[in-house]
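SEQUENCE-TO-STRUCTURE ENTRY
===========================
What this section holds: a protein sequence and its matching fold, both as plain text.
Question of interest: how does this chain fold, as expressed in backbone structure tokens?
***
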Amino acid sequence: MSFLKGSVTGSGFRGKGGELGEEGADLSAAVAQLAKHSFHRPVVLGKGEDKYPQFGWCGGGHLNDDGFAEEKVVRGPFLSFAVLVTKRKIPADEVQARAAQELEAAALGRPIRPQDRRDAVRIARDAMAAEAEGTGRYLVRKMTPVVYDSERRHLWLHTSSHAVADGVAALWNVTFGGELVPIDLAHYLGDGSAPSGAIPEWLSEAEAPNGWGNLFAREVVRTAADETIPLDRSFDWPSEDAVVKLIPRRTLTMRCPLGVKGLDRFDHELPYKVPELADALREGKMPTTLGLDLVSPGSDGPVPFALTPHRLAVSGARLPKGAAKGKEEAQLERLEAVRSFFDTIDGAAVSYARKHLD
């Protein structure tokens, strides 16, 4: 799937410095740079002498798509393309089979020790890696869609993988200069804006402001669970004179921020109705994954998705179909809808954090 169709999954980054980190960037020149740093001339991020993984841009149509024509990549203020990641992955079953043969050859009737098994696995893996070096065997390629919004200088990456995000950041630096900064609560709030109290165990000290994302998600859950609030008990956020509703649905994972009391997972159409949730809230646990329905005024229906609050990352967001008929118009309308969706989620979390900082 990509940002142009299907469900939306991923997180946002902001370009800082470099050719695309300033206002009024030349998209024609940017397309030329993408072609220059395609998967035919990848960036190698392997450790030591390892030649993998490799990262390079591709057109986004398929794994071998090296076409970067402007009429294909540019949609209004957006660039729609992909990153191709190539890595070596030797199948574990084949390593075990080769290791078993090594053991049989080395045992010669004597008892096999645990160290012998470890040595056999290491020898088998090294031998298969050496064979792969010359033949190109055991290579796995995966394409991840990317969208760049030149007006906001935001990049959306259609994955939640930290390894892919790090690789894209390195490739971005080689291609355009500058850096990619994650769009999270730390990005919006700046330094010195961390919540009071202990830093949740899943955050580093530098990421401490992102704890507001977990507190925001906790407030969404607490509001829904409060039976003194009538009707749907949604978390309402005023947005441009309208009210956006966030309603917990389907799944909820609550985790102790100090790593002392473990985690609770609730799989239920309305998780805030599960009796055990009250205990989790009383113990101070915070949501680390939260299923939500986004209800906007004038929309045809709710947009279901899952949120990782400390990263403002989403998955499985099923956006409504647009009304545009032509292919290019429909794609531009879709990308504008993706932008609006991310803006709404980010805005709700930032609004909550700033309200409690003031």
Q: What stands out?
A: The CA atoms of residues 186 and 225 lie 28 Å apart. The chain has a mean pLDDT of 83. The two ends are 41 Å apart (CA to CA). DSSP finds nine helices and 14 strands in the chain.
